[in-house]
C-alpha cells in the first residue's frame, strides 16, 4: 500500500491498490499520468531545491586549474575552465539552482577567439594582472577583485596580455536557466577577433562616475552600459558606507553592482553584490527565494548554510541553495572581510517569486550541526 501525500486538507492522499496501479499503467502507455501521484512533490509547501550547499576550496582547486595550462590549449578547449558542479545538479552542469560557475585560466600572452551566446556571463578576477576582455568592441582591462559583465548575445573575447604569470578568474553564467527554457544559441565571430572601438575601458570612463550620468544618453539595452566595476572604488564605497550606517543585520554592509542609468541589476537574469563584514562581525540568519554563489574576496571567516558551518578564506567559493538559511561571520578581530556574490534574484523578482524571511529562533542564529 502506498499513500500519496499526508492527511491534510487540499493535499493528495490517495491510497494505492491493484485497480489504481492498472489504471496508472494504462495512462503511462498514452504518455499521461495521474497528477495526484506527484502533486505533493511538484507543488511543495515551500521550496525543496535539488541543490545542496557546497564549498570549493581555492587552495585545493588552484593547482588543478593551473595544471590545465599544460594539458590543454585554450584554442582546443574553447575556454579552459574548471567547472564547479553541485553533486545533485551535475546533469545540468549547475553550481546551484540554475546558475553555473567555474574557474577559467589564461596563460601569459594567450587569447580566446570572439563568440557570443544566449547565456549571460560575469567575471570576478581572483589573481593575475594582465586580464582583458572585449565586449561588443569595447576593450576592458581587469585585475584582482574586479568585476565585469558579458551580457547575453554580446560578442566577447578575452585573454592575458601580461607576462608575469597566469590569470584566473571566476565565471558565472545562467546557462542552466537558458537551457531549461530551451533558448540557447551560440555563434563564433566571423572574423574570430573583434575590432576595438574607442579607448580601453571606455564604458568606465563614460559611466563610472557613479553619481553622474551622461545627459541625454541614448542607451536603451536591458543591461548595464558599465561593463567593468573595479575593486578599489567598490571597496572605498563599502568603507564609506560603514562610517555612516550599521548596514544589514543579515549581510553587514552590502552593496549591489548596478546599472548606473536605472539603479537596477547589471543584467536581467543575474545580479551581483559585494559585502563587507567588520572585524568580528557576525550576521543574523535569513533565507531568500533564489540561488546564490559566494566568493571570499578578502579576509577569512565562516558562514552557516542550512545548519552546516562553512569556513572560508580568500578565493574560496560556496553556494547557498534557494530558501536555505544562511549567515556570515568575520574571523578577524582587527581586519574586515569581504564576500562577492551573484544570484538569480532579478528572475525571481520579475516573476513575482522573490521572498525573504529572518530566522525566528535562537536569537536569530542557526544551530550548527
TrEMBL record:
Residues 103-169, 275-336 form the Cupin type-2 domain. SUPFAM superfamilies: RmlC-like cupins. It is an enzyme of class 1 (oxidoreductase). Keywords: Dioxygenase, Oxidoreductase. It holds the Pfam family Cupin_2. It comes from the Bacteria. Its EC number is 1.13.11.4. One of its GO terms (molecular function) is gentisate 1,2-dioxygenase activity. PANTHER family: 1,2-DIOXYGENASE PROTEIN-RELATED, CUPIN. This is Cupin domain-containing protein. It comes from Saccharothrix algeriensis.
